[in-house]
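Internal ticket - ligand job 189, adenosine monophosphate:
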Amino acid sequence: MLNIVIFGGPGSGKGTQSEKIIEKYGLDHISTGDVLRAEIKNETELGKIADSYISKGQLVPDELIIDILASVFDKKENSRGVIFDGFPRTIPQAEALKKMLLERGTAISAVVALEVEDDELVARLLNRGKISGRSDDNQETIQKRLNVYHSQTAPLIDFYKKENLYNGIYGMGSIEEIFERIKSVIEKI
Ligand code: AMP
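stdout (structure tokens):
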């Protein structure tokens, strides 16, 4: 399997680039944010819990998201590979992902990390907020999400560097330019 983690701060282009990677390489997409937003829309119990964290810019607790991830992954039968978008976001999640894949006889092939400065992330998210209708794309919550990214998610950079899986991608420029950089990483796997 070709399993790719797409990594980066909120607004770094993970969702946009995931779509392009999926189209080109025929992978399945797991976006934990999309899964949670679907639960909220369907007004499930899980959705209610998730909403109380998401709307405040906080992360959903690890145990909850790890269970969700495993059940979504197990539904992708005969997959050529999966792109993990928005997961992992903490060290315990990264450890759980490694274990889950190992138990299923596979592993992460590469981490593709979109590197974008904070000022640009804020500008992109404010812009997206005008059309996304997302409860978390507003000034106050964006700042909280960035703080959460730096304190809880950025430590994964060193984690994946130690695992020799980290590939930093300059995340500024056009969608196509960034995708070219990503392709050159994937083609070397
Ligand atoms: P995203 O669509 O990836 O930006 O995720 C939106 C929000 O969903 C995040 O700010 C978190 O509140 C929650 N979320 C998504 N993925 C995770 C995750 N892996 N761990 C914890 N919370 C998550």
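Auto-summary: The pocket of adenosine monophosphate is lined by residues 10, 32-33, 36, 53-54, 58-60, 65, 86-87, 89, 93, 136, 145 (CB under 6 Å). The radius of gyration is 16 Å.
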